[in-house]
Amino acid sequence: MKINNQDVFMKKPTVIMVPYPAQGHVTPILNLASALSRHGFSPVVVTPEFIHSTIAHKNAGITCKSIPDGLEEETPRDFFSIEFAMENNMPEHLEGLVRELNGGDGGGVAFMIVDLLASWALKVGGDCGVPVVGYWPVMFAAYQLIAAIPEMLSLGIISETGIPQNEGPIYLGYDQPPLGTQDLPWLIGNLISRKSRFKFWTRTLARTKTLSQILVNSFPEEHHIDTNLQDQSIKYPNITPIGPLTQHTRYGNPHFSEEDMSCLDWLDQQSDRSVVYISFGTWVSPIGKAKVRNLAIALESSKHPFIWVLGSKWREGLPKNYVERMWNRGRVVSWAPQSEVLRHKGVGCYLTHCGWNSTIEAIQSKVRLLCYPIAGDQFVNCDYIVKIWRTGIRMSDFGEENVHRSLEKVMGDIEMEERLVKMNQRIFGMETSLRVIANLTNFVDDYSKVTNDQTLTKGS
């Protein structure tokens, strides 16, 4: 059979991308999809409908496909309901989609990129005969912590259900900050919740042992990453740092929620570096009415202007008429255009949950951080921010005295500002950008060669 070289060239091979269905996971996948589309692939991002409906119209050039999660419409999409859907309902629908895309007239499915927290999709790729590449959406250090679970079990640091057996620090690798056992990412909620989350992580780790390569959404010099990969106590797959990609794509950090743009006009009226920006992300559970109330009172008495991102579930703890009373000095919004807010000259610091995307945005905008980690990898991120990079301080509580003292300390630290400039250059400077581009290009070249060979075989 004669091969039409033009047809082979025109048919872009498909890359199916499966993120964990949450803002902090979907956003970097979309950025990676944008980068891959510029390298000759046709990315297809697959999410359940409740995510698909918020992103499909925002990402021209990227195909977004939805699959049913099988949950009742009124069921809250929290960690446990999503885990149930991923394990029991979504695999058969993804398999049908993969087989459909792989059997079409296009270039076929070259490979899949699967978020490790969506490890259920790894088996789907294997069953369909499609190569699968893992994707870790946060710091490599957080992956090291999960990979160290077997060692923690063997040393008796944690029980078989993940419960800490002592209060000692955990050392992840060469010259890394120790992590307290109370900050392990599965220690959220009551005992049943903690055991369930630990089971989720051990299952994830077991499934990912089949992977030969993992793309990591972190910069190459995260913190002695090359040295830590030489740690012989843990066998790692091929780790490829390719982040952050925000400055190499068209999409930046798109958000699911509608943004209140009016806060930017209000920001224009504030003094330079005077405003406190507060946001705990879109995924974490409410911190509780008492903590919200304490923080509200502390902000009011601090005299600092502020923008506070506070969803409806969180607002029950606000003092009576707080939003109206603080209107001139503080804005409480359901969601803010975070990138624009952080880049604004009026913002002096950012009180954050230390989600990875938010951390990177803050460094990109050279904004100092007040850290209040709540769940997951946020504790690891916080330790780096406070102990290694020293671009922020950790807050233990929202008592008035502590909030006031922390605000004055972080906003008055000139040396912290200098460290932020250096950190910004380290992550977003030319040298790092070239390494990220080279890593991504080498990865693409490897899979492009395999794809071209497969295409020629099909055409023969």
Automatic annotation (TrEMBL):
<comment type="function">
    <text>May glycosylate diterpenes or flavonols in leaves.</text>
</comment>
<comment type="similarity">
    <text>Belongs to the UDP-glycosyltransferase family.</text>
</comment>
<keyword id="KW-0808">Transferase</keyword>
<protein>
    <recommendedName>
        <fullName>Glycosyltransferase</fullName>
        <ecNumber>2.4.1.-</ecNumber>
    </recommendedName>
</protein>
<dbReference type="GO" id="GO:0080043">
    <property type="term" value="F:quercetin 3-O-glucosyltransferase activity"/>
</dbReference>
<dbReference type="InterPro" id="IPR035595">
    <property type="entry name" value="UDP_glycos_trans_CS"/>
</dbReference>
<keyword id="KW-0328">Glycosyltransferase</keyword>
<dbReference type="Pfam" id="PF00201">
    <property type="entry name" value="UDPGT"/>
</dbReference>
<dbReference type="InterPro" id="IPR002213">
    <property type="entry name" value="UDP_glucos_trans"/>
</dbReference>
<dbReference type="GO" id="GO:0080044">
    <property type="term" value="F:quercetin 7-O-glucosyltransferase activity"/>
</dbReference>
